[in-house]
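Recap from last week: sequence in, structure out.
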Amino acid sequence: MTNKKIFTSHKLGDTSLANRIVMAPMTRSRAIDNLPNELMATYYSQRATAGVSITEGVSPSPNGLGYARIPGIFSMDQTQAWKK
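Predicted structure tokens:
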């Protein structure tokens, strides 16, 4: 028996959701020089209808870079790149 409730809309606080699907966060180590890029924009746009998308881990400071190639949001270049 298939549970089709997952595809029904839902009200979460003040937010209306098209469905009940949630995509968990991932960090895929694809941010060259810690800058969000076109590959990341494409990845999230392809999954935009999944429901709620919790984006990948983002470093708020250079000290928060736990490993190579994760995106940051501590420089003006990074802030601009996230606008995609």
